[in-house]
TrEMBL record:
<protein>
    <submittedName>
        <fullName>SEC14-like protein 2</fullName>
    </submittedName>
</protein>
<dbReference type="InterPro" id="IPR001251">
    <property type="entry name" value="CRAL-TRIO_dom"/>
</dbReference>
<dbReference type="InterPro" id="IPR051064">
    <property type="entry name" value="SEC14/CRAL-TRIO_domain"/>
</dbReference>
<dbReference type="Pfam" id="PF00650">
    <property type="entry name" value="CRAL_TRIO"/>
</dbReference>
<dbReference type="GO" id="GO:0005737">
    <property type="term" value="C:cytoplasm"/>
</dbReference>
<dbReference type="InterPro" id="IPR036598">
    <property type="entry name" value="GOLD_dom_sf"/>
</dbReference>
<feature type="domain" description="CRAL-TRIO">
    <location>
        <begin position="219"/>
        <end position="393"/>
    </location>
</feature>
<dbReference type="InterPro" id="IPR036865">
    <property type="entry name" value="CRAL-TRIO_dom_sf"/>
</dbReference>
<dbReference type="InterPro" id="IPR036273">
    <property type="entry name" value="CRAL/TRIO_N_dom_sf"/>
</dbReference>
<dbReference type="InterPro" id="IPR011074">
    <property type="entry name" value="CRAL/TRIO_N_dom"/>
</dbReference>
């Protein structure tokens, strides 16, 4: 079993691989994931020899005290108190020691904190003299190790706790612990926050019908022809690689030609591709793969093409919405064909607003395409980037869209000029801190109400209610703020009853 770790420098990655190789002869470590080995390296500040020595001593301690079975075999509270006359028997004396520890050695695990972490209470009311004269040192060590194993087990049980909280959701019945761990890690193992995050993700998946995207979704021509990016090959560890020709991105064209929900479906389709590729790679390599490598090509980066602020905000905000639905799946981010320092600084200032420290630490600037081969073997790398693959050309455009300018016939206004479905349209101005209500009379059931909202400079609040004159107003779309200044907000609702619909 292997699990991807993040935020490591190339030297730390080397130390991790070297540690795994150095202890490959230890049978007890077979199947341990990268995070396990990383704990020992961090404890010794990535000093390989010290981490190896510490780990080998730990394995010897586990054997000596039989820690693999200590949680089931070490139960002093279930042992009857031995009689005084039997104290000549060594095993009976040992049981008495355990009774003393159970009764007089303070501390215990109980409950969780607000984030779902197990809590250990220690009153520090130690009777050091009494323990010294009544308990062997070895048994104190054993009791302490038992408590440590107990806390580790309680921490490892987080996926099971999360699964139990969500047991009523049919969509999760076939999910393994790795699925729940991704949400737990991104929420620092806060079970309650991870639960809310999964529920929100499932709501989005239902609305966009994500489960059927791989089989049924056909992206609109503007995205298939003009939006750069695509998965191709794997890195040396088996992680899928996404190539993004950001330098060919037409931010303005996409902003004016792709509706938000359509763009979200397109990106979720890519997210589902990632899940499938990771599953296939895991099966081939016999280890768990759940993250991907991103190669961002900045060739052709220009002020006029990419630095259209509304378009960049629109695109990046939609992309960042993927993180709560595919959490902890981004691995290395490799930037190639770096432009001049001034141009790169402008690019980074543009996108860093949307990055947290964790994502920022994953970025590596490669000054030479040959450096890509440290991460990706040549037979998995497009020829344009120093590899040997042609699919069918050096950029492997069978799989990777290199991107281009969006033709103006794809712009929204062109659609309207060609005669989009005629309907009553309302154009209005609303002052700051003011509101406006638009009413429609629904004459017959099954009437479809559609809306497209776009504002010039600021976001707005939007909601939809239905009144039938008999019952209190029914809230169809809760009043909430929408970023209509960033993208065209679209939606629809089928009115099952007649009455007056109000948009506010």
């Amino acid at each position: 079993m292997s699990s991807q770790v993040e935020d490591l420098t190339p030297e730390q990655w080397d130390a991790l691989e070297n540690l795994k190789s150095a202890v490959a002869d230890v049978e007890e470590l077979a199947g341990m994931d990268d995070r396990y080995f990383l704990r020992w390296l961090k404890a010794r500040k990535f000093h390989l020899a010290k981490a190896e020595d510490m780990l080998r001593k730990h394995i010897e301690t586990r054997k000596k005290y039989k820690l693999d079975t200590i949680l089931t075999d070490y139960k002093p509270n279930e042992v009857e108190h031995p009689l005084q006359e039997n104290l000549t028997d060594i095993s009976t004396i040992h049981l008495l020691y355990l009774q003393v520890l159970e009764k007089y050695f303070p501390g215990g695990a109980m409950g969780e904190d607000r984030d779902g972490h197990p809590v250990w209470y220690d009153n520090f009311n130690y009777d050091f003299k009494g323990l010294h004269y009544s308990v062997r040192n070895e048994d104190i060590v054993l009791c302490t190790l038992y408590r440590t194993e107990l806390m580790l087990k309680l921490g490892r049980d987080s996926p099971a706790k999360l699964r139990e909280k969500l047991k009523d959701l049919e969509e999760l019945t076939d999910k393994d612990d790795y699925y729940f761990l991704r949400f737990l890690r991104i929420r620092n193992f806060n079970v309650n926050l991870a639960q809310s995050m999964i529920k929100a993700s499932l709501g989005v998946r239902r609305r966009l019908q994500v489960d059927t995207l791989l089989e049924e979704y056909d992206p609109p021509p503007v995205l298939k022809e003009c939006f750069p990016g695509g998965f191709f090959g794997e890195d040396r560890e088996g992680h899928p690689v996404w190539y993004d020709n950001f330098g060919n991105l037409d931010a303005k064209g996409l902003y004016h030609s792709v509706k938000r929900d359509e763009f979200m479906k397109y990106k979720f389709h890519q997210g589902e591709q990632l899940v499938k590729l990771c599953e296939e790679s895991s099966a081939r390599r016999g280890k768990h793969i759940e993250t991907f490598v991103m190669v961002i090509d900045l060739k052709n980066l220009s002020l006029t093409r990419q630095f259209y602020w509304p378009g960049i905000r629109y695109i990046i905000e939609v992309i960042t919405m993927l993180e709560p639905n595919y959490p902890d799946t981004t691995g290395e981010i490799l930037l190639i064909n770096i432009p001049s320092r001034g141009m790169y600084n402008q690019f980074f200032r543009l996108v860093e607003k949307f990055m947290d420290d964790k994502t920022r630490n994953k970025i590596t600037l490669l000054c030479d395409l040959d450096e890509l081969k440290k991460y990706i073997s040549p037979d998995q790398l497009p020829a344009a980037y120093g590899g040997t693959r042609y699919e069918p050309d050096p950029y492997c455009t069978k799989y990777i869209n290199t991107g281009r300018l969006v033709p103006e016939e794809y712009y929204f206004r062109r659609e309207l000029e060609r005669g989009e479905e005629e309907a009553e349209r309302v154009h209005l101005g609303v002052w700051r801190n003011k509101s406006h209500t638009v009413s429609y009379q629904v004459e017959k059931p099954a009437t479809i109400l559609k809306w497209e909202i776009q504002s010039l400079e600021y976001d707005i609040a939007f909601g939809l209610t239905l009144e039938d004159g008999l019952n209190p107003p029914l809230e169809i779309v809760p009043l909430s703020r929408v970023n209509s200044h960033l993208y065209l907000v679209t939606g629809s609702h089928t009115c099952e009853k007649t009455g007056k619909c109000e948009q506010k």
